[in-house]
Amino acid sequence: MDISLRSSPVHFILWGIIAVVMIRIVLVFAMGMMPQDAYYYLYSEHLSLSYFDHPPMIAWLLRIFSIVFGKTVLGVKLTDFILTTGTIFVFYRLAQKFHTGFMVDRSMYLILSTMLISILSLVTTPDVPLMLFWSLSVLFLYRAIESNQARDWLLAGFMTGLAFDSKYTALMILVGLFGYLLTYAPKRHLLRRKGPYLAVMIFVLTIMPVLIWNFQNDWISIKFQSSDRVSSMEVMNIQLKYFFGNIGTQMFLLLPVLYIFLLVALIRQTYNYFKSRCQPDGHHWFLWWFCAPMVFGFMFLSMIYWVKLNWAMPAYITGILLAVNFIPGKWVRIQVLLSVVFHFAFLIQVFYYPFSIRSDDTWWGWPELAVHVKQIHTRYPDSFIFSDDGYKTSAELSFFLDQKIYSGNVIGKDGLQFSIIDPELHHLKNKNALYIDSEKRFDDINPHPMPRPELSEYFESVQQMEPIIIYNDSGEPERKFLVYYLTNYKGS
């Protein structure tokens, strides 16, 4: 380590990172089930070659870990935590390839300080395995480019395939590979060798389960993630709120200090390449190609479309390794200080829930909802249960009630993976139902004053019951769910 990091500031950084890691471990055991956790666990209970929203890797891994941990909230959280720990280890090995000494330490401090690692450790999404296999892909691609050994190219192709089996954005790994080889003259000769194409061949073989499933299902998943999204974009309608919203969410993921220095690093490398006549540094340019296309691409897209918080996550693996060259030690200390503050606030929110989250994207209240629904269902045991908020309420009830729960396709809505699991609902015809409807923002605890006309289209009669109200520790109503008893289902 350099002298500046041997003095007391390094102890502050180290103890700050230890505090952040300890908070993450506590949250693994304390945080409740997010809707995403429940939804992807539903995937794992219906193993398939692929799924409507995403490829199958998260489902396969959850199924494997459930053998050890069982069907428990803690088991799901431990799956995320263990896989993300693997990502951190691979990042460390990558850092050793591109840096030495205190720069490796500083790289680790930076990635461990991020909210990105906390989200990956605590919330089940396809990004959890994607980040692991993306990191492994970059590691083996670097080794393959340096050694040009067939073994490394094979492993790189295999890991890239596993990354694609996690999430479709893994295609950007191939963009990074061929973009680097095309633009970095000392390595351009590899395009005339068999190595890169051997990697592509293994990649295609590894993603065959996803391709087969999509072929069998009219390419529904790939369409959903590509052409369907493109068709909803308003190219001529600039939305600055989307753009600044994207900047804000990415600052939350990395925290402002790291995000700003990452952008500085990318812009500097871009400027140097196009304005300087000198050949770029090979290491920096390699890192640039596995970060900049995603960061700048999604930044540009955010001007016309809402870019989700997690879409650019993989880019930050190499982005942090590039940014560490530009961030001074004092700003690393500020980054860690902000991280401690953010994580302590997160800890308080999980334990005491002082700020209401008027959204279904919360861990709070789902087990209590399941208890109430189970009690109501005992009075109407022949009724099936469904909700239509995409997947959230249906997935949570499916996990906690451990019985068949249906989704919006019952009333002609898009049920996402629920529609794939039950494409035909003839077996429900003429049955009664309980419909659970989350009212995210409410002013009172009374039944809803407006009827739900779409329910009458599918059922003979609609009776609104007393809502389910879940109270916080202060006795204040925190969540509200409308309940309807429906008779004689006519069919979808």
TrEMBL record:
* GO BP, sorted A to Z: lipopolysaccharide biosynthetic process
- The superkingdom of the source organism is Bacteria
Record bears the keyword Transmembrane: yes
Keywords in alphabetical order, please.
Cell membrane, Glycosyltransferase, Membrane, Transferase, Transmembrane, Transmembrane helix
Cell compartment(s), UniProt: Cell membrane
Q: Which InterPro entries match?
A: LipidA_mod_glycosyltrf_83, RgtA/B/C-like
Which Gene Ontology molecular function entries are recorded, alphabetically? pentosyltransferase activity
Q: What is the lineage of its organism?
A: Bacteria, Pseudomonadati, Bacteroidota, Saprospiria, Saprospirales
Name used for this protein in its record: Glycosyltransferase family 39 protein
Pfam families referenced in this protein's UniProt entry, alphabetically: PMT_2
Name a GO CC annotation attached to this entry. Answer: plasma membrane
Q: What is its main location?
A: membrane
